[in-house]
Amino acid sequence: MTKLDDALAAAIGRYRQAHPRSEAALTRARAVLPGGNTRSSLWNAPFPLCVVGGHGCRIRDVDEHEYIDSLGEFTAGIFGHSSPVLAAAVADAHARGINLSSHTPYEVALAERLVERFPSIDRVRFANSGTEANLMAINAARLATGRERVIVFENGYHGGVATFIPGADRVNAPYAFDVLPFDDIDAAVVAFAKGPEVAAVLVEPMQGAGGCRVASPAFLQSLRDLTRKSGTVLIFDEIQTARMAFGGLQERLGIVPDMTTLGKFFGGGMAFGAFGGKAEIMDLFDPSRPGALPHAGTFNNNSLTMAAGIAAIDHYLSADTLNALFDRGEAFRNRLNAAFIANAAPFEATGIGSILNIHACLDAPQDAVAARRLLQFEVLAEGCYFAPRGLIALSLAITEAEIETFFAALDRALGRLMPVLSEVH
Ligand SMILES: Cc1ncc(COP(=O)(O)O)c(C=O)c1O
User: Fold this and answer.
1) Which atom of ligand 1 is nearest to the CA of 241?
2) Alpha-carbon distance 404 to 399, whole Å?
3) Residue 368 contacts by C-beta under 8 Å, 6 or more apart in sequence?
4) What are the Cα distances from residue 320, in Å, to 176, 238, 243, 245, 310?
5) In order along the chain (425 residues), what is the average pLDDT of each group of 10 residues?
6) Which of 317, 348, 380 corresponds to the end of one domain?
7) Residue 425: its pLDDT value, please?
8) What is the pLDDT of residue 194?
9) d(CA 244, CA 238)
């Protein structure tokens, strides 16, 4: 055991002592859920927190601790918790009657709002998750082009069955994926030189689950140029990055893809996904046409999601609000990196706007993992929650006061950690 391992074991010991009911909750869950878990990304050994509620930017666990929620449901929880606006929209839709077995006015109103925001979307279809939206976008591209190959990128994440993070890809849907290095223009040029048989390029403008790695504008522009020349459908997965501006990160980049996938917060906190694009592709799904592509789904237009999405857009997601959140996130990440440098702490935060990931910069991979986990446990003990993998996604509910609280917590945590970490790197 190194000093770092000892420090991590001690932090986990303190965590265990402070959270007996979370541990008991996992023990109970293990009998009926594999490992007590139904969403792999939430796992955190020895047991994740059992969270019983939240209000604004704070969550409460079953052991009665309160935390500043700096994770924001892995970017979906941009509104904070218990928004009265969203609660009223959902209650109103429920009171009018849900599960209506036909078209409703809601889906049109939500679609109009999305089409207005994204020049890349002439028409949109709704789904129940981002994963489903990406699979349907791939299907649309394959069938529109009559081609099979789909280019994706190392460490990309497009859903539980379309992930290119090493080790996580064994349950992927069986498409003809070509996995290229991310942000590598030469590799993309070589792949396209092989011939015009690529149906789609599916790319996150910033890889979210892959560690908040931002693609260079030049790389994305070269993908735009290569796909345009070869008749390939360029799909931007903006499921995380759509919050970067009124029209998503594509607006900031000035690049218009052929298709865009959305998810997370555009459903106002309900289960949601959407894929949209040029009319010539999306109209393949027009059911009044002979030979239309099917896209079924009991809950595609469920009134609760549609109503929450409309209220979310109208109340929270204006250009000014999203631009201010972007700036706050940029300032947050810069301040975080300044704090790491000032403490000579071996960490770095990457990302863009309000989504960022803390990485431990240590040579040995097992030391890097231990250091990152140690930081997460120490900051948690100070009352601030973020993902064990280092992800932070600021919500609109986090104010400057909570940011000050976060940095004070980080300072105390680094004060305890640095005697250990300074011996490692
Ligand atoms: C970029 C990206 N694409 C797709 C997905 C999948 O969305 P969902 O979890 O709603 O299926 C996610 C989820 O984290 C994501 O971050």
Assistant:
1) 1
2) 9
3) 359, 360, 361, 362
4) 41, 19, 12, 9, 18
5) 92 98 98 97 97 98 98 98 98 97 97 98 98 98 97 98 94 96 98 89 98 98 97 98 98 98 98 98 98 97 98 98 98 98 97 98 95 98 97 98 98 96 82
6) 317
7) 61
8) 84
9) 9
Q: Kindly give the residue spans of alpha helices, DSSP state H, lying in 52-104.
A: 84-96
Q: By residue range, what is the domain housing residue 406?
A: 3-81+320-421
CA-nearest residue for atom 3, ligand 1, is 158
208 with 90, same domain: the answer is yes
What spacing in Å lies between the alpha carbon of 127 and ligand 1's midpoint? 12
Residue at 241: amino acid letter: T
Domain shared by 17 and 138, yes or no? no
Give the closest residue to 350 by CA, choosing from 371, 334, 363: 334
Give the DSSP letter of residue 42: G
Q: State the distance from the centre of ligand 1 to the C-alpha of 134, rounded, in angstroms.
A: 9
* 197 and 152 co-located in one domain: yes
What distance in angstroms lies between residue 414's CA and the mean position of ligand 1's atoms?
Answer: 32
Pairing of strands 66-69, 384-385: parallel
Final residue before a domain boundary, out of 300, 317, 334: 317
Given the CA of residue 130, which atom of ligand 1 is nearest to it? Answer: 7
Q: Do residues 70 and 167 both lie within one domain?
A: no
Pocket lined around ligand 1, Cβ cut-off 6 Å: 74, 129-131, 134, 157-159, 204, 208-209, 237, 239-240, 263, 273
Instruction: Count Cβ atoms below 10 Å from residue 36 Cβ, excluding itself.
Output: 17
